[in-house]
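Sequence only, no structure available. Ideas?
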Amino acid sequence: MNDCIFCDILAGRAPAEFVYRDDWCAAFMDIRPVNPGHVLVVPIVHTALLTEVDETSTRQMLWVGQQVDAALRESGIRCEAVNLFLADGRAAGQDVMHVHLHVIPRFRGDGHHLRFSPAYFKSTPASELKKNAGLIRQRMENRP
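Reply:
I predicted one. Tokens follow.
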């Protein structure tokens, strides 16, 4: 494999504190946590983008994320809520080009925010929503 820290972690060439591992994905502690208890869920097979991950691994990653969410809430780690975050591509903020789902414990006043641009607060015209939905729907109907 190339220089992928997550592949190195999965292969045992780099240290990590695992909380889960199976044939499709693994979950381990983020070394730069947003808050204590921040976990990353990654597919075992190296894939840079979500569109490249096989269906079984994708389903398993979300299930493991759900299980980590529940475990965080029961763990005693400060956790009033949970963010699930997956950046798919560099322009979306993906820094390690191996798909990873962040499971982030959150609490009021933790100082972390997901910020939206001013454009988010403006309603999109129905005609544009209809056009974009049609483009996406067409591609979804043509998928294998």
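The mean pLDDT is 94.
Hope that gets you unstuck.
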